[in-house]
């Protein structure tokens, strides 16, 4: 049921906008945005007098905006405009409370992690420079790093911190936080919260690691670092990022690739093959299964794409 129009409604909005322009010296563009937001509030409220607007009404109006597929950020901006108006209005008339208090915009959905398709990931980590039969020492190091990132889903800092074998430290060196055990086919790493985990290493990654270890020079810093920079010191996460980025460009990968994308690809591809969310959680080192569940959305996207391509009733007429 429509409410009788409030005689001074337009004047209140106009006065508020005038104050924004004169006292706060907001730009005409910003003033126009406030005007549109308040006009929309007026329309959605269907003539309800400002004094009668309650928190439940604002929640209802926010729900209407959400049902119209307005984004959470846009709804939050409108709520901010409405909140400022009602705050100013409370200084000029009696309001029970600011009806926007306690009302929040819907949460923005968390962006899905970006993962490579299986063929793209395999091509990326195994590709060699065109026209080259043998790899340089640096290229063997890169291949071992990239294969291991994809094979075991390591974080880039975990990869950079790996040693060839476990060392107790001493002589200015800290004890190992992670190391490779090629004999058992495992990598042991210390993840977030200083929690250690063991992750299997695939056969291709083991072969790449063996090829790198065969030519790896003694580290210049006296450490047991597995992966080395051009100066033969422990490689940094930033160097891994830059090397992978350039390798992806050279390989013709059509998207920007970073180490965490290989971690996402590992998780997504293992989940697609096994469906074992708990195992993926353990291998990634997630403290909560909630962090791992995001990959179920990627798995569903993959299944939906397969369905669209394969099912005879899925194709548009």
Automatic annotation (TrEMBL):
Its main location: cytoplasm. Residues 7-90 form the Core-binding (CB) domain. Keywords: Cell cycle, Cell division, Chromosome partition, Cytoplasm, DNA integration, DNA recombination, DNA-binding. It is found in: Cytoplasm. Gene3D superfamilies: 1.10.150.130, Intergrase catalytic core. It holds the Pfam family Phage_int_SAM_1. SUPFAM superfamilies: DNA breaking-rejoining enzymes. It comes from the Bacteria. Residues 111-308 form the Tyr recombinase domain. The active site is at residues 155, 192, 260, 263, 286, 295. Belongs to the 'phage' integrase family. XerC subfamily. Forms a cyclic heterotetrameric complex composed of two molecules of XerC and two molecules of XerD. Site-specific tyrosine recombinase, which acts by catalyzing the cutting and rejoining of the recombining DNA molecules. The XerC-XerD complex is essential to convert dimers of the bacterial chromosome into monomers to permit their segregation at cell division. It also contributes to the segregational stability of plasmids. This is Tyrosine recombinase XerC. It comes from Massilia mucilaginosa.
């Amino acid at each position: 049921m429509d409410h009788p129009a409030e005689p001074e409604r337009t004047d209140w909005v106009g006065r508020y906008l005038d104050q924004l322009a004169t006292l706060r010296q907001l730009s005409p563009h910003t003033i126009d945005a406030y005007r549109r937001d308040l006009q929309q509030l007026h329309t959605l409220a269907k003539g309800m007098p400002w004094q009668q607007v309650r928190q439940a009404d604002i929640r209802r109006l926010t729900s209407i905006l959400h049902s119209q597929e307005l984004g959470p950020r846009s709804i939050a901006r409108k709520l901010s405009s409405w909140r400022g108006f009602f705050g100013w209005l409370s200084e000029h008339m009696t309001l029970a409370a600011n009806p926007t208090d306690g009302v929040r915009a819907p949460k923005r959905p968390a962006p899905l992690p970006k993962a490579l398709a299986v063929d793209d990931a395999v091509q990326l980590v195994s590709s060699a420079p065109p026209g080259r039969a043998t790899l340089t020492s640096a290229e063997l190091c890169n291949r071992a790093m990239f294969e291991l990132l994809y094979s075991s889903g390591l974080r880039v800092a975990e990869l950079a911190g790996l040693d060839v074998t476990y060392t107790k430290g001493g002589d200015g060196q800290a004890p190992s936080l992670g190391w490779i055990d090629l004999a058992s086919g495992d990598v042991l790493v210390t993840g977030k919260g200083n929690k250690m985990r063991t992750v299997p290493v695939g056969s291709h990654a083991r072969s790449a690691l063996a090829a790198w270890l065969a030519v790896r020079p003694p580290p210049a810093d006296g450490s047991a670092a597995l992966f080395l920079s051009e100066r033969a010191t422990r490689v940094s996460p930033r160097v891994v990022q830059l090397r992978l980025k350039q390798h992806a460009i050279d390989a013709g990968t059509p998207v920007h690739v970073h180490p965490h994308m290989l971690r996402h690809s590992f998780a997504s591809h293992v989940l697609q093959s096994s469906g074992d969310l708990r195992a993926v959680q353990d291998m990634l080192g997630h403290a909560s299964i909630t962090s791992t569940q995001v990959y179920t959305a990627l798995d569903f996207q993959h299944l939906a794409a397969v369905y669209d391509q394969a099912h005879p009733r899925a194709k548009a007429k």
